[in-house]
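Before relying on records like the one below, remember that each one covers exactly one chain. Contacts with other chains, cofactors or solvent are not represented anywhere in the record.
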Amino acid sequence: MNRRTFVAALMAGAFAVAALPAVTSLSSPAAAAEKVKIAVVLKTLSSQYWKIVAAGAQAAADKNNVDLILLGPPTEDAVEQQINMVQDVLAQKPDALIFSPSQPDTAVNVITKVRKAGVPVLLVDTGMPEKFTDYASFIGTDNIAAGKAGGEALLKVLKKGDKVLLLDGAPGNPSMTQRCDGAKQVLEAAGIEIAARQPAYSDREKAYTVTQNVLQSTPDIAGVFAGNDEEALGALRALKQSGKEVPIIGVDANSDNLKAILAGDLYGSIAQGNYDMGRLGVEKALEIIAGKTIDKRIDSGATLITKENAQQLVDFRASIK
């Protein structure tokens, strides 16, 4: 894809993850009298992926003069700490809550408490169990589709009978599980063997250890699909130490992974529209506060990033203020 075509795709909205639509100022009679307060509780604020979600939310908040409360635990598996953050922020009486539950099943009670307090809840990145519907909207990636895209990318460089390692997230994290499910469906349908599927808790060091262990029992791994980019980098380190070069696909297209893709170390990554998750979360919350109706499900998009288009995404992210 040449630069002119890429830019045209951005303008058309085809490259969903990189598109940066204008943030429209929204207001309501209540907002005119008193500043709107919106709470955002993410899975963590320590990884680049979640920092980009936070940047999108902050940009929309700044544009619309919103008092934004932005919180997240130190790691994605700090489930109890995240729940406590939601309970604490409820005491600050926000006009809306934007929430990304680390373990949706565990979050049912606290979201119910938020709703009983009359606060609308918008979910970003991760939805709730199917039977739980007491939220305004879920804004995020179709994770099964993202996993399938990663599996299809691997199929371009693998052959029937090859063995693939799937690196899953923490047990109970549906986003990671769905990505691995999607990749597994595509790969197995094409005759690829899933040699192992192991939880790596969305963590680079844990993925490194898991990959090392799998390589001891299955040294002929021919490819890796990782549910996120931290895991992809952990797998890369383990494979390099064992002297193996195999295609690795991650999810998120973080800066370290983009560098690795451009260097030829990683094959690719599925970039989510994480900036737009945060941006849309705030914009849609303002619409709800203004009494408007919004869609129950909003797809924020995802795109395969390889060496061919990685630099364009690097440039776009550098332009985000």
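The chain has two domains: 18-140+274-300, 143-271.
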